[in-house]
Design a protein that fits this description.
Blueprint (H helix, E strand, L loop, with lengths): L5 H9 L3 H4 L13 H8 L1 H10 L5 E2 L7 H12 L3 E11 L2 E11 L2 E12 L19 H17 L4 E10 L13 E3 L9 E3 L12 E5 L1 H8 L11 H13 L10 H5 L13 H10 L3 H5 L12 H6 L10 H4 L10 H13 L6 E2 L1 H9 L5 E11 L11 E12 L5 E8 L8 H12 L6 E3 L3 H12 L8 H11 L17 E2 H8 E2 L9 H11 L1 H7 L22 E2 L2 E2 L15 H7 L10 H12 L4 H33 L1
Length: 649
């Protein structure tokens, strides 16, 4: 039975053409739809279980996930009761199928409650609808999803009065018990389809409520009345009917291509074994030939805000771009965004792989640095339910760091690392003490890659005053010494050893065409290795021959591998954190989850350590893989520094 489900409706909103490609084995798909993976990363299963406890004595409809008719019949049977609460209620009508997280029935009055592993603050009046009256784009998919659920339920029962709610973590609430996030765990011996083990039976046992709900009934009515549209020219009802028809008939929608949608399409693949939905769209709609797909196109231009307009004007290839339509602005003291874009375009069109370096600017910057140089990287998570009493939902959790030192004589030392792999242990203050101990031994310059580490130190700073740590004043002082305050911070500071952002240095003074415009360390590292004779010569030898120490790799480990004349990314040499998924698939799948900017694989592994019952050998294996990941991140920073040193010497 081909029915339009919630997830397919959501996919159709992204792009109706995707309904043709989805779940077809012959088409490559970089997103893995795996509820276990998402549950681990975002703790969504915990929010769902806790939400159900707010509506006790409900009936869970489970099993037979693909038997839509049976699930609908079970739901109808329960709905014969005057008053009933149902978890995972199923509704099937006219080729449409949905399941609701929680449904509360009081006669003909219905509460439709959608549970989300997201967060809100109750006093945010512009959470869903912005100041100018437009729907907040990050909430659009979820609000249209609820509107779709309400539409299907109302179609089944026109006489019902339906109120719609979103239930999620309330960031203004503090946990009143320790270990809230360990009360719901994932197990193969679980009680229902997500395999959840509950350690409590009543809501009172969970302490003060940390979830809240927002009434979105009016917003849903406005969506139905077409006050808010997902796509121009497509009404809400029309979108449902069209998507259903396309999917039922297995018909290609021929929906117009666009820069933003096609740029992030998951059906774009380099895999020769599988078909590419992206290629088929451009072949059908723009008559692109095989040759066109090899030409440099505008989709990967760095931070290309002008892409939408240029695409609308029929400019798809880099060789059709000009300085004017890119809006080129050149500044003496740094590489502007438009200058980086133009370098990327020009070098790719001219097949020029030479580096661009602002030699004077880079030299001046590097002359400010003080030896020994310290390179640090954090792995973090934002967990839905708090670890300890007094903490709020979605507080930042810093569970791992790696620290490399580059000494003035060229010696490279993997000086320290920290990881917390124990379930239910709030790590932040222990993490900070370990970081303090390893960085306080001298006044050398400290490097991070991107703003993440500064953000995390600000978050821990905010947690310290209310903590009961005896050394909290010392820890606050340490944070002040190596970071700077965020723009919205009530207390302002800038440390005398405020970390230097190597990502920012790279962006201001250096451009390597091999990165294809990306500033990610996973792109910069292989590009630097490919462009640097020094790095190639050095890292083609084992670690014990090049004065590099390691805590996680053997002394005869070699970092440089060349396959078919191409440098293999060191990240591709790491053990997989999950047997079934590549890191790219994990990152793509989790890209929509709250507060995940990067490091999705590490974050998911941390979720697994926190919420699943594992054998010690499995814990050790996962911990070992995490330590290797984090060590490579800081070694990559060292290599990038060595590359800059080679250029400027």
């Amino acid at each position: 039975m081909r029915v339009l489900t919630k997830s397919r409706f959501k996919l159709g909103l992204e792009c109706p053409n995707k309904l043709y490609y989805t779940k077809k084995k012959e088409y490559a798909d970089t997103k893995v739809s795996d509820t276990f993976l998402e549950a681990l990363a975002e703790g969504g299963f915990q929010v769902e279980e806790l939400a159900r406890m707010h509506y006790p004595n409900g009936v869970l409809i489970e099993g037979n996930d693909w038997d839509y008719q049976l699930l609908w019949e079970q739901t109808q049977e329960l709905l014969k009761q005057e008053n009933v609460i149902i978890y995972e209620a199923a509704f099937l009508i006219d080729g449409l199928f949905i399941r609701t997280d929680v449904l509360v029935k009081h006669g003909g009055n219905i509460e439709l409650i959608e549970v989300k592993a997201k967060s809100f603050t109750p006093d945010d009046e512009y959470l869903f609808i912005g100041k100018r009256g437009g729907m907040v784009s990050s909430w659009k998919p979820y609000l249209f999803d609820i509107a779709f659920q309400k539409y299907v339920i109302q179609f089944c029962f026109p006489q019902w009065n339906i109120q719609s709610y979103i239930m999620m973590a309330d960031k203004s609430k503090k946990a009143s018990i320790n270990g809230l996030n360990q009360l719901f765990r994932i197990s193969s011996k679980g009680e229902n389809r997500t395999g959840i083990l509950k350690k409590v039976s009543t809501i009172e046992e969970t302490g003060n409520p940390v979830l809240g709900r927002k009434n979105v009934t009016q917003i849903v009515a406005d969506i139905e009345a077409n006050k808010y549209k997902y796509h121009d020219g497509l009404t809400f009802i029309k979108s449902i009917n069209q998507f259903k028809t396309f999917y039922q008939k297995d018909e290609y929608a021929n929906w117009k291509t666009s820069f933003s949608a096609c740029k992030s399409c998951e059906f774009k693949s380099e895999d020769d074994e599988l078909k590419s939905g992206f290629k088929e769209c451009f072949n059908k709609q723009h008559n692109w030939t095989e040759n066109d797909f090899t030409k440099p196109n505008i989709f990967d231009v760095y931070f290309f805000t002008k892409g939408n307009k240029l695409f609308e004007d029929g400019i798809y290839f880099k060789d059709k771009l000009t300085e004017d339509n890119v809006g080129l602005k050149v500044e003496a003291e740094k590489l502007t965004t438009s200058h980086r874009q133009w370098l990327q375009i020009e070098k790719e069109v001219n097949n020029d792989s030479t580096l661009y370096v602002d030699l004077e600017g880079l030299k001046d910057e590097m002359n400010k640095w003080v030896f020994p140089l310290h390179f640090i990287d954090f792995e973090t998570s934002a967990v839905a339910l708090p670890f300890n009493k007094g903490l709020k939902p979605y507080e930042q959790i810093a569970f791992q760091f790696s620290h490399h030192i580059y000494h003035e004589n060229g010696k490279i030392e993997h000086a320290n690392e920290y990881i917390n792999n124990k379930a239910g242990v709030f790590p932040n203050f222990e993490f900070l003490r370990a970081l303090k101990e390893t960085l306080e031994k001298d006044n050398g310059t400290i490097f991070r890659y991107s703003n993440h580490e500064n953000t995390i130190l600000n978050a821990i700073y905010a947690q310290l005053p209310d903590s009961e740590e005896d050394d909290r004043e010392e820890l606050i002082k340490f944070i002040h010494s190596i970071s700077h305050s965020k723009s919205d911070s009530a207390v302002k500071w800038k440390g005398n050893r405020d970390m230097v952002d190597l990502w920012d240095v790279e962006k201001r003074f250096y451009y390597n065409p091999l990165t294809k415009g990306s500033n990610s360390i996973k792109a910069i590292l292989p590009a630097s290795l490919s462009s640097s004779k020094f790095l190639q010569e050095k890292y083609s030898k084992p670690l014990n021959q090049i004065n590099v120490s390691s805590k996680n790799f053997s002394e005869n480990h070699v970092w440089l591998e060349i396959e078919n004349d191409i440098v293999k990314s060191p990240y591709k040499m790491l053990p997989s954190l999950f047997d079934d998924w590549s890191e790219e698939q994990i990152e793509n799948t989790l890209s929509e989850i709250e507060d995940i900017a990067n490091g999705g694989a590490a974050l998911t592994a941390y979720g697994k350590l926190q919420y699943t019952d594992m054998e010690q050998s499995e814990i050790d294996e996962l911990t070992s893989a995490l330590l290797k990941y984090c060590e490579l991140d800081t070694l990559a920073m060292v290599m990038i520094y060595e590359h800059f040193k080679e250029i400027t010497d």
